[in-house]
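Narrative progress, year one. The postdoctoral researcher (J.K.) led the effort to move from monomer predictions toward full complexes, under supervision of the PI. The following entry was the first complex the group processed end to end, covering 786 residues in total.
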Amino acid sequence: MVRPLHQVKTAPEGRGLRATVLLVLAVGLLLPIAAGLAQTARAAFGVMPSIGATEAGWHAWSALLSVPGFATSVKLTLITGLGSTALSLLLTLAIVATLHGRLTSGTTGRWLTPFLAIPHAALAIGLAFVLAPSGWIARLLAPILGLDRPPDIALVGDPWGIALIIGLVIKEVPFLLLVTLSALTQIPVRRHLATGQSLGYGRAMIWLKILAPQIWPLIRLPVMVVLAYALSTVDMALILGPSNPPVLAVLLTRLFFAPDTAALLPASAGALLQAGLALAAFGLIWLCEFTSRRVGRWWLRRGGRGGAAEPALRGIGLAGVALLALGLVAMAALGVWSLAWRWPWPAALPESWSLRAWTGAGPGLGRALGETVFLALATTALSLLLAIAWLEGEDRARRGRAGWAQALIYLPLLVPQIAFLYGLNVLFLRLGLTGERAAVVWAQALFVFPYVMITLSDPWRALDPRLPRAAASLGAGPWRRLVAVKLPVLLTPLLTAAAIGVAVSVAQYLPTLFMGAGRVATLTTEAVTLSAASDRRVTGVYASLQAGLPLAAYAAAFLIPALVHRNRQGLKGGGT
Amino acid sequence: MSLTLTDLSLTLAGPPLFPPLTLNVRPGEVATVMGPSGVGKSTLLDAIAGHLAPVFTLSGRISLDGHDLAPLPPEARRIGLVFQDSVLFPHLSVGDNLAFGLARHVKGRAARRAAVEHALDQAGLSGLHDRDPASLSGGQRSRAALMRSLLADPAALLLDEPFSKLDAGLRDEIRAFTFAHVRERSIPALMVTHDQADADAAGGPTVTLG
């Protein structure tokens, strides 16, 4: 072998950029979550000097155990969290198996947009309007069943959490559908179906035995995100869940805002328990995966062709589609209620319409709208900037993403918000930062950034690498390549990521409540508050606006590239 | 000005992709690199242009007119790239693609516009300044991409299977057009191809890898 003259190792570019991104993430994301958790844990074991509690011990836990209804709360949390996630997963798989071939990623994406855009609270309010004893369903059934007054049963806030489960499922199935469809593009579904069918297997069996095991590793992380959310949701549970006792996260929020500061200790213990529940649930997922690997293989080797499973799968798929239809009705209900004037029982539609709920909502509505728009724009801009810096840093290093970096992105979505937000609030109090808009922007960005980053990563990597190379060969340095070539070509995915960022920001409830110390009022916090008591018309106005903002962002994400690139055939279709 | 590769070899955790390569390409000459798929032809071009992924180790020397290229980032190497399917920037008009390439030393809006229009005329693309690149024919795209590279005033040109996507009839025309420009500019060019006819037409030294 010829000895080389000299070895050439060019240093990867963009060190400074990557170091900056890492520093921002460490200081802005990792450190606060860790500090918040630590603060919560300290208080959970009795130490919270600001309220005079200095003696470490288990008394916070015994106080938590003696909170009335505590055991029921935990049980409810597990039922609604695990139940809604399992149901969502089942329905998603059934819908995909039933409709695959008729679903293309593009058209389905458009159909799913309203579901992905609508904030949890707005959907929950709409559902309450539909499911309530005096809601749309009861009104439509009244003439048939001969009801002369709203039925006297609790259909919303039922003690079993069924309404909450329905709400969570309607919100999560579209998200899981989206990630499953994108996972399916990596699997040769048609060929597997053809092969399986030639061996005599029914479609349903092929989906269960061949395709589902391949899909699972690709959607495991999103399912964990769904599970973590379902176990710890506050806004949806306040609107749809049982109230006495409520699910754990709601119980804890009440304790955190109780007038008696001594309640902060058991609340912190509960927040730690909430994190423990999420961890245990992840363990359960792992256990399910482990067992179904064993049992699945045994089942597979028996070779059952399962012709009978077909109608069952189709039935479940149809049930899933029906639930999504219910979601659309719920969204419509928001608009109808906000415009209703006289609407006596049991008329299906209002007798008279009016804009009075909109015009009479007072300056509070405008202020909440302005605050929401400001927070959405600020958090989205911040998150998008950081995501671009991160991805550009990866490009300049010409390296893929390390496993720990991917985990870092998902971290804020996997740790229950309540477990660290209050601890963080305490820290901020000490620093004198709480109640500031900046604190809310930052707390929201913790949850906006992961979604922006996840949405942008795939299209960013799918960019033809020859484009920046061609630009470099023409003398364009790294910044000109980024600004003049990559960003314009990626305009559509950038705006899509921004729209998702806006949707996530608008939907945030707990971070706004805790970091804003109740002083920062957004459409979401107002809508949740209003949903408890007041006039449906006013609630409808807030919730409609709350749902309308993200939809407007999605519409803009669709229209702006179509306008800017109207004469650019090469950028159509390939952009997302 | 000539492009010189001295004992160049590329390693990806194991033996080198190909035996050490030494090649001198003189100004106005088109050298050809041939070889089966996967032998590392594209990686060789990446190394010369400065886009080598860090997983590869490069040994040997790449020099342009005696100057070592190794310490230079891609944008400072003055090496033009022409790809298989042109790779025009999809968001820019045909004229703006050329303007993106046009060297900085041409100053003033009018002068730059005139330089772009002149290049369009030379490439038989007169009047297509504002067109969407996606609306051009294959041959037009190839000529536009070559003109874009040449406007950047490159010191050498790398051609990555530049004619393989073109119809047989068009291929001769674009080949002649490309080689004529390389001779006229008197710059060295290195072409990677699968097509023996390309190598014959180029007339320069031919290296077969693998």
